[in-house]
Amino acid sequence: MNYYTTPSESARNILIANDRGGYTIPTSGLYPYQWNWDSAVAALGFAEFDINRAWVELETLFSGQWADGMVPHILFHKPDPGYFPGPDVWGGTGPIPSSGIIQPPLAATMARRVLDMDPVSGKERMRALFPKMLAWHRWIKAWRLDDHGAVCTTHPWEAGRDNAPDWDNTMAAIDASDVGEYQRRDTSHVNSADRPTKYDYDRYIKLVNIGREAGWDQAKLLELNPFRVADPTMSFTTLRAARDLLAVSNDLGLEADGLSADIDRLEAGARSLWNEGLGAFDARDAHTGEWAESVSNASYLCWYAGIESARMLERVKTVLTTVPHPIPSYDPHMPKFDERRYWRGPTWAFMNMLTGFGLAEMGHGVEAEALRLKTARLIAGHGFAEYFDPLTGGPAGGNSFTWTAAVWLHWAGRN
Asked: Which of 4, 110, 359, 399 has CB atoms 3.0–4.6 Å from 368's, for a disulfide?
């Protein structure tokens, strides 16, 4: 009898095992709650074999939406005293205990993809979610744009790329000497050499403390928060979400006043992140105007946002032919590259998928397919890890990871 489990069966089993009844955790132990952009990606995986469960994932995410429209980056559905920082540290004010920051807004784009997979059954689900997604978009527009229209991150965790080199200069100016003692959870589950350093983590907690003490009053935080960085991740994903919201509003006849003007401003903001000297899209400190001088995997999300770039296309062609397991989260030729440390070099399958979506949609099918096949081989050869060493393919971070399984089912593993 053959007991071999195919990668697709394994991926489905991971999603089912990480299901906590209406929401999915990223992986057992390391991440015991619902994370915002993880859930959006998880919905795509569920849609491949249980489309109702895909909608439930998104609906549960928006059940934690704050009254002002913000959708938190973590929803603490069930107590887990071992996790830090938990809801008591954050002091969130939403209907479900939560963090006080967001993550890149993938939900509208993923909801549209789920809708396209079954328009008949999904139409009413989308109608119900649409005003909530639009409210979140308007919250971002109100509180996160810089003077150019680029979207800022106000905490490294908000951008989702926690300890990327993009933040180093801004983080260095933050005094975190008063954060006190705390016990991290991440380093008790995975190799500490793969994770952010204590230096970084002290500053993460300092920013949380500033937000909590301000009651997460966004007007106050515009003045108080020392960390405000215009970011390719946030800018490209917000622009793409706005385009998808407009398309859905047109298809379903839903109110979306101002979206076209928002898209124009967001596109101008995203284009303003082109660093000519670097030859890539880059992060920029909104307080000082200083460039990060960082070519990251977020730099390659331009096509996902509907922005063409001949120079980025040359870069992606080079990466596809010179990096064994692309796309690294930081350019291997840059001085801070670390092939295994979180967001400072490793490859992330879901970021590859977003780039692949954009490449295919903008007519770069050869590059899109090469990226898909390389991602498929990486997962098939090294498992459903959180992220991977781009040079060896070695798995790192958490195992049996939800969004890597979802990427396999929806994109990488499809013939």
From this structure: 359
Q: Please confirm, yes or no, whether 369 is among the known catalytic residues.
A: no
Tokens representing residue 213 in the block: 């003490």
Concatenating the DSSP letter of every residue in 281-338 gives E--EETTT--B----BGGGGGGTTTT---HHHHHHHHHHHHHSSSPPBSB-TTSTT--
Which neighbouring-strand residues pair with 274?
281
Q: Which of 158, 186, 338, 386 is catalytic?
A: 386
> What CATH number is given to the structural domain containing 115?
1.50.10.10
Query: Residue 254 belongs to what domain range?
Result: 7-412
- Select which of 38, 48, 162, 367 is catalytic: 162
Q: What would the two tokens of residue 34 be?
A: 């619902």
Q: Is residue 2 part of a domain?
A: no
Q: Is residue 1 part of a domain?
A: no
Identify whether 386 is a catalytic site residue: yes
Residue 71: which of 129, 123, 24, 4 has the closest Cα?
Answer: 129
